[in-house]
Amino acid sequence: MMHSQIPKSDEYQTRRRWLTGAVGTVAALGAAPLVGAAPVQPRKQLLLLFLSGGASQFETWDPKPGAKTGGPFRAIPTSIPGERIGELLPHTAKALHRLTVVRSVVSNIADHFQGHYALQSGRIAPGYPVLGSAVAKLLERPDDVLPGYVSIRRNGPKAYTDVGDAGFLGAKYDGVKVYDNLPPQNLVRPAGITTPLAESVERLRRAADARFRQRHDGRPIESYEATYQQAAALMKHREIFDLAGESSAMHDRYGRHEFGQHCLQARRLLEAGVTCVKVTHFDWDAHQDNFYWHQVRCAEFDRTFVTLLDDLEQRGLLEHTLVVVTGEMGRTPQINNLGGRDHWGRAWSMAMAGAGVKPGVIHGATNDLGTEVTEDPVTHGDLFHTYLRALGIDSRMDYTIGDQTNPVADPAAKPIEALLA
Amino acid sequence: MNGILPTHLPRRWRNCDKIVCLVALALALAQPAQGQGSAESRPLHERIDALVSRPLESRKLIPAKLSSDAEFVRRVYLDLSGVIPTAQEARTFLDDPSPDKRARLIDTLLAAPGYALQMARVFDVMLLERRVPAGGTAVDVPLPAWRAYLCEAFAENRPWDVMTRELLGGDGSDTARGAAVRFYLTRDVNAHQLTRDVGRLFLGIDLQCAQCHDDPRFKDYRQADYYGLYAFLERSKLFPVKPKGALLGELAVGTTKFTSVFTAKSGETHPRLPGGAMLTDPALEKDREYRVKPGPNQRGIPVYSRRMALSEQLPRGETPGFTRNLANRLWALMLGRGIIQPLDLSHAGNPPSHPELLAELEAWLVARHHDIRGLLREIALSRTYQRSSELPDGSPPPSDAFAVAPLRGLSAEQFRWSLLQATGRIEAHLAKLEAQPKKAPAPEAPAWKQLADRLEPLERPSAALLTAFAGLPGQPEEGFQPTVDQALHLLNSEKLLPLLKADPGTLLHRLSSMEQPEPLVGELYLSVLSRRPDAEELSEAGQQIAAAGSPEGRNVVVKSLMWGLLLSAEFRLNH
């Protein structure tokens, strides 16, 4: 059993107390159980680390050293006897017994747009919610105040990386976007608006609504009211978007680069009780100089990822948080004449950890060249079912939105029972 | 379960036959009660009310009373002009004692240029669903051209079948109505996306699941239906032109094959409308298939265009679903939900709440050449539309009974223009234009164009507001879905503050010169909520104003009163 190097700091204890109701906010935040109160099941949470562009399975989870498709890197031993992964992930290798790795993803999608959508929604047909939106909806509680889904990313070119949203679940579940770790817009009252004015406006709004709802259907009035409560909660707790509250040592551990800082932000949000957080890690689309790029990308990913797992575990979050690591596709076995690998959906890998999945399992296999899946093929639809099940959601249920019912996961796919804890 | 029905019919039609039979039977039964021939001679709005009221009795539901004049005036302005009335317009209507004032207002609004602008906004959102093409606006029809196309069509009340023919048949090369090709371009001419959306938006059926397999939920939606529609569209291709814009090209060849992911059964199809007959391409000699052969810089124009065939086959009264979809969507526009709901899920397992009513509306539209303005007029005249949104007995009746006027969220467009109206910014802006020295009279621009041009300068300052309230790209905007971003925008956005300033001619400016609290509060309520305050509201607001002391303090109180009302559910909802 690996033990984390991260001590329980005082700062952490204080935050935790605040979040667990010592200051009376837990009911409003709906996050963690009250310490000492009647046991409430902590809500399951989701962290999606999306390797945008498509990481190479050869340089990560499914190395083929010595094969003509294998590239220059070695495979190294891991904490699971007999299993090896790419040498670019030395920290992850030591934590492999805590992970669930799938080496047999067959999505057959070699396009960024389609891949981003399909790997997040579990479908090809458009209009469905992505994982973060879906889980935010499915695990929603009536007294929730914080948004159910936050997506953290670089404010760079959006193009295909912004594919996918709440679909038919609607704007409420589209999630709050955090770009470059800046808090969402309009969290701070403008300088010209005095507190008495704002309070007076709020009082008048409430009085008007109380009057209006006396004789009207209360449901739309309440859902409108809820958005003001959410706004007030975000304004009040906007420090959950402020990394200045994290110690310098913590910044160092996560890494003072974009991905590290975004993962630190993600942990902060999970700890505050946001149900789903997605972090996008960019620049895996290595059509040229694949091996150089994977050295750079893997170095960032490897240490931050393990730090994140340790930190989540240390804070008691990992046991109810599912961590998913995937991209929209893998990369070709063929190495092109620019030293790159191209788009590939026929046989590639992803990984999971935390809530609901069996640790230390390597599922599926590819042939010696990595060109075909030879064992237990898994589709994006199967993965989607599996994520939901790991989070305690019956993946065969339907959404009922207004008068419309829709299956939460593609009925043509199924959960991977062998991976579920 | 369909054993007694003819088995040679496709299953979808066997199921639908049942509904058709029920409708026919119900209509036949309904006839004698109304006296011979009277049903036809009564205006449609009376028949609407009869058909909505009858099930209320059997369901033991009490309908709401007739709306107050204040409820009605706000609602009908929002629905037919897309914006709340000015205080003066509201006051004029409320104070008008004549018994036919509602009917007159409906006709006035339908004839006004604001109607064309409102319908253009509604159909822009309905048809394009706020999409942006993958290639960006460079490969799209410029927004002004698209808007002009829609405004012109609604200003002249172009029949829906004609519009549909333009939307589905054009390739963008027509100088007058080429902008209609935007329907294709915002979808990147992606045949799968188009198949789904042509089904949803023009026929009221969502064949999405049938792309990959027969839909396990609905027996009506077969994979073969999906690919029958797809076959009309798959040969059409995006053809970008320099320096900007795009046209449609089309191939003359290509067969449509499909395989079920469930059963691995495969099929091949020619173009076929769901439930209709299969079309075969005309036999053309080899090398005679093209008028213009496609090449690297050459837009392909086939002799026989499958897309053109779609534009001719689909927009007809006899195409199952075509007229019904229009009737259902116009009904939903006015009543907050369709007679079939969701609007794009018409199938045997999801029957209309009022089948006779839907059949009446459909027949009316067919007989009157798909007259959109005419149908909206009849709906607006109905008592059903004019019900109050106040609950008769405290609990909301089922929404599919149309017993109470629904609370509908304002669309992003309605909210933007209503906020500009409430704060007096539209009036202030128009007054400023009036005061400017007149330019030489413009060549006869249509009324909608003159109005659109005059309002245009107000768009940029309110663009952030529109963005905050707009729905997700590619999603139908149904139901009320307020978000936290919107609340934060209304509370804290620096971009909202300029709209709330007391500039000359605006509401706050007007109120600041009013001495007495009573008329001041009256003007405020008429401006923001299109009604007069009740005694309690008057006294509460009056007290706050009186307690303010200094003129500056008084201005702050008045501003908070206005802002509070703008944030209220009553303002946010069409009620």
Task: Record keyword descriptors for this entry.
heterodimer, A: 421 residues, alpha/beta, Alkaline Phosphatase, subunit A, eight-stranded mixed beta sheet, two-stranded antiparallel sheet, 32% helix, globular, disordered N terminus, B: 575 residues, mainly alpha, two-stranded antiparallel ribbon, 8 strands
Write the layout of secondary structure elements.
The complex is a heterodimer of chains A (421) and B (575).
Chain A: H1 10-19, H2 26-29, E1 45-51, E2 75-77, E3 84-86, H3 90-94, E4 99-105, H4 112-121, H5 131-138, E5 149-153, E6 176-179, H6 195-213, H7 218-236, H8 248-254, H9 258-272, E7 276-281, H10 290-314, E8 321-327, E9 330-331, E10 343-344, E11 348-354, E12 361-363, E13 365-366, E14 373-375, H11 380-390, E15 398-401, E16 404-407
Helix pairs in contact in A: 4-11, 8-9, 9-10
Chain B: H1 11-33, H2 38-41, H3 44-58, H4 69-81, H5 87-95, H6 101-111, H7 113-128, H8 143-155, H9 160-169, H10 182-185, H11 191-203, H12 223-233, E1 236-240, E2 246-250, E3 256-259, E4 266-269, E5 290-292, E6 301-302, H13 306-313, H14 322-335, H15 355-367, H16 372-381, E7 408-409, H17 412-422, H18 425-435, H19 447-455, H20 463-469, H21 484-492, H22 507-512, H23 517-529, H24 535-546, H25 551-566, H26 569-572, E8 573-574
Antiparallel strand pairs in B: 1-2, 3-4, 5-6, 7-8
